[in-house]
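User: Run a structure prediction on this.
Assistant: Running it now.
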Amino acid sequence: MLDKRHLEPDISAEEAARAWNQDRFVARARALFYARMMFLSLGLLIIGVPAWARYFGFHGPVALFGYLSMLLYSVANYLVIDHRRAGRWVTYITLCLDLTIMVIVIAKPQVGGGLNSPFLATQLLFTTLFAILFPKPLAILPPLLALPLTTQLDQLLNRSTSPIDLLTVLWYSGLNVIIVYVLVYLNEREVAAHREVVELQAELKDLAVVEERSRLAREIHDGLGASLSSLIIQSEYLLQIAQDDSLKSEIGELKTSAEEAIEELRRSLKMMREDFELASGLEEYVQTFQDRTQLKVNFEKHGHPEKLSPDAQLTLFRVLQECLSNAAKHAHAQEVRVQLTFDATNVLLAVRDDGLGFDPSQTPSGHYGLLNMHERAMKIGGNVVIDSSPGAGSQISLTLPVRP
């Protein structure tokens, strides 16, 4: 399990923001396609009526070719909208083609031409479309250049520029600035609001996990914990009234097992509530193990303890348990040395014993302790190294990243 406080919220927020941006773009690009279909329908109507075609200058093979070209690239754009990269590029290019056709239509002398064209207001529509689909300064530049380009075409076509034309340019320029500012501002607010919602959802998810862990911890403590406590109390009572030494020994072992179980339960509950202190928890376990088995165990801690994820803490604890158990049961060691070392990126647990040693390549069938160590470490990006040979003792080193 990754450390939620450091990684999961950032990663989920980034992925959610990317998916949300893509979905939002696709929805807006589809709206652009439907708007194009409306304009193409009007264009087809204009071309189909001879009087309208002559008035707007939309007649002949050139007009028909332009119309079919718009229809083809509009459909092609619609087919690739869902693609993350190609959809954006194709939409932007086709929108620029629409803008180019608009400038050509505005410049036509049949309907006034240039700054006097009734189609000039369409430029504001394109500024709006560019700002909605591509709310970046450079991306919005093409529709903003349409006004000076139209003015330049007027001069190239030897049309006189009156004070009213200058006022028209200033008026449309002001409207363009207002549209761009409002849409970009609203877009930033929308993105910020979505980011806050995603972060809040991640926090609520973590809170739900913590609450569920706390609920389970309470149930286990009140249920299983109470049962184990009762077993210990009953064992103590039986020890007081028992007369046979062998029976006392069996009851004592039962009491010890119950005490070990309740200690294991307490450690698990601490991990579930995420208030388990790794270094002190390992040191306490080493002391308890030493008292119970009379095996000398030296514990050393180096570096500043880092707050690890619950899975990392559990892995370190289980590996230590397995190592000490093997040292007592199989290696018949006289002394064990445990070192816990923290640095900026990793935590190292090294367990060295002076026991019989073994050949790591000849693990007996049915013994899965070493395999479990490797699997636990691999699950969270760690590594286990086993250094042992017959008669030379053993050293098992577990290395885990501080931030898996």
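The chain is about 65% helix and 10% strand.
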